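Thread: "does anyone have the structure for this chain?"

Original post by V.I.:
We have the sequence but no experimental structure in hand. Need at least a predicted one for the grant figures.
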Amino acid sequence: MLTKKTNLTGRQKAGVFLIAIGNDVATEIFKHLREDEIEQITFEIARLDKITPEDKEKVLIEFNEMMMAQGFITNGGIDFARGLLEKSLGNQKAIDIINRLTSSLQVRPFDFVRRTDPAQLLNFIQGEHPQTVALILSYLEPNKAATIMSSLPHTIQADVAKRIATMDRVSPDVLREVERVLERKLSTLASEDYTSAGGIDAVVEILNNVDRGTEKTIIEALEEEDPELAEEIKKRMFVFEDIVLLDDKAIQKVMREVDNADLSKALKSVDAEVQEKIFKNMSKRAASGLREEMDFMGPVRLKDVEEAQQKIVNIIRKLEEQGEIVVARSGEDELVA
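Reply from O.Q.:
Generated one for you, tokens below.
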């Protein structure tokens, strides 16, 4: 049992917080955590016998203060956040909160860039080297990066996309230099550790937000220059769970191309929403037969499930390339008959 004077560890606080907010919300949060994080927090929850009202209140207040501080930092930077927190909570409390937040959450470079209008930012980076443009876009929200990517000259779009995809880690010295040139002043990095930037996931997020024409231009250029990279990007651009984004007619076309054995494996580990989307586009008899097959096959290796899902994703991409179906993308207008 935790007592009022207990000094909780970070994991214990996480456990108390998840218990306090209830199972439904906690389940949604778990979906965004790594397996090892879930295991660690679950272990702490299991060890928590009883929680005093004082501990519960203390954890919830701290969470609220941290979220408030993070919001202030996002809107106006650390100095802005410190000023507002000092007015609300006092000088020492503000310093404590900022120190806890910045020690656990690194302030990302190019903060001033993220608060810049995309149109202004485009003019800002128009003449920069593609590597510099790639570095900046990799730190932006995917929708803002997509807007800028779509507006870049076609001659450098694929080059920038490739540089983002092949980027791994960036030295703090490089980040400082790029920030100095762009903003004419040094930006403070929270840590001297190398900072993760770019990668295939980053370029996939950007391409998922650009218009279909820009995506097609970039992918085709990458297929010419680096076929393996292009294929890896294409594999990640539409995951099996995204099948819920297809309209009923598109799903029915896909189902005609899919082997039942692959479909039954592919549906083993997905949410009920995905399963129902498939079942409702089948006849009652076929849906019933598919459910029986899934129950009969028992446990299936995760590798086999993923392979079956990838086969179906490949069919979806093939039908899209042939113009047989349309895959909705973020920001695109809905289709009307």
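V.I.: this helps a lot. The chain has 19 helices and two strands.
O.Q.: and The longest helix spans residues 53-89.
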